[in-house]
Amino acid sequence: MSKKKFYISTAIAYASGKPHIGNSYEIVLADSIARYKRQQGFDVYFQTGTDEHGQKIEEKAQNAGLTPQEFVDDLSGEIKKIWDIMNTSYDKFIRTTDKDHKERTAKIFDKLYEQGDIYKGKYEGLYCTPCESFFTETQLVEGKCPDCGREVQPASEEAYFFKLSNYTERLEKYIEEHPEFIQPVSRKNEIVNNFIKPGVPDLCVSRSSFKWGIPVNFDKNHVIYVWIDALSNYITFLGYDTEKKDFNEYWPADVQLIGKDILRFHTIYWPIMLMALDLPLPKKIFGHPWLLLGGDKMSKSKGNIVYADDIVNEFGVDALRYYYLHEIPFASDGTFTYELLIERINSDLANVLGNLVNRTIAMVNKYFDGTVTNKKINNEIDEDLFKTINEAPIKIDKLMDEIRISDAVEVIIDLFRRANKYIDETTPWTLAKDENKKDRLETVLYNLLETIKNGAYLIAPFLPETSEKIFEQLNVKCQNDVVDTYNVGKPYPLFERIDKEKKLAEIISR
């Protein structure tokens, strides 16, 4: 019997600069979902990659004395390296300079033009180069780009336009009939009330003022503008318009993760494009919140950029993964500070998880030379622990379906907290003093090892490296199987406690 398919994608990173920790959050969020679905038995296809065309890249390459292709080769490699440092399990890392993508995107443009959805016109308006977006005077905020806050420039050029008005009524009806399509609900309301109901202007889909893009087949003076080029990646690399069976097996996508700043492009332009191509829409588009630095959005102009690889070198990959997945709420922005990161490492990872594993395995070695079996001398305290173990996967499954990753991770940490409380309730060191209670002591330690094993299995999608280290110490390979006898290894710390003041002083002094 074939496995059920699951397709998850991230937005593709713009290859104009090194991604900061806010950019890296999305790939880890997607990775945790992809790993969880694989653990549940799904055949997962997880796609990410880089968006490599546009005026901004052409200008940056020129300033760097490089060709645009050389420039994006460097940056795409840098982005992929950071995705790999974050231990993400993508199935395909795509690049929009790929030959097949360019050919398929040009065909999509042709099709839309031939069926009357694209027409030639002239654009006059205000243009933001970093965002690659045109705006009217009324859309500006204090005279600046509403998305990034930078200066805009007057622009006038011949362009092709996508007649979005052909499909906006159909899109609004679809959103109303599929409340799960745009998540969270607050994002859906924002899109419908602020962008669709007031009327959606036609979309500029070609440019003639620069050359770094996919040429329009029938008009070589134009290159295909970012939104058709970048958005089509979700289907072109899957084999749209070819004989590849992957497209029919995996499309429509189950979850498309995007930052809330590009929500309207993915919930208006993208579904309309799919409607025009007569393709089904993604099942869910999730606009995740931002990760702010001490309450501010990260930007080079503010000089408040922090990079994921630097944090990983300092604190380890799972410490940052944990911070991403546990500390950023479902629908509101999260905040990153070194103080909060260190506090989380010390409280949750070192004290709750690390200490539990370390002292349990140490006691198994001390009292039973590393080997325990289940003597089944249980009472009400044990039953309460078993209840927590049994309920955890059910709670997590529901939360993961709702993309409430932070809440799912908290369920696992609560399981480890419950195990620590169980140690306090059963006091193994007291049981060890009474030879008549040796079987009860062995039962208690077996129950603790079972809790740790179950917790390590549950936490694997979120902290894969830590999960592996726990199984290594438990000397268990079959992660979700029943273990009758444990033969544990030697304990070693999963996470070291950090002297917060000393570490902060080190960071500040650099």
Q: In brief, what are we looking at here?
A:
With 510 residues, this protein is of the alpha/beta class. The protein has helices at 21-39, 55-63, 68-85, 99-114, 168-177, 185-196, 226-231, 233-236, 246-250, 263-276, 308-315, 317-327, 338-368, 380-401, 405-426, 428-431, 438-459, 464-474, 500-509; strands at residues 5-10, 13-14, 43-51, 92-95, 118-128, 133-135, 153-162, 182-183, 203-204, 206-207, 214-216, 219-224, 255-259, 285-288, 291-293, 334-336, 371-373, 485-487.
User: What share of residues is helical?
Assistant: 40-55%
Largest sheet: 7 strands, parallel
Shape: elongated
SS elements, strand count: 18
Write down the oligomeric state: single chain
Q: Low-confidence parts lasting 5 or more residues at pLDDT below 50?
A: none
What class do helices, strands and sheet pairing give?
Answer: alpha/beta
End-to-end gap: 57 Å
The average pLDDT value, as a whole number, equals 92
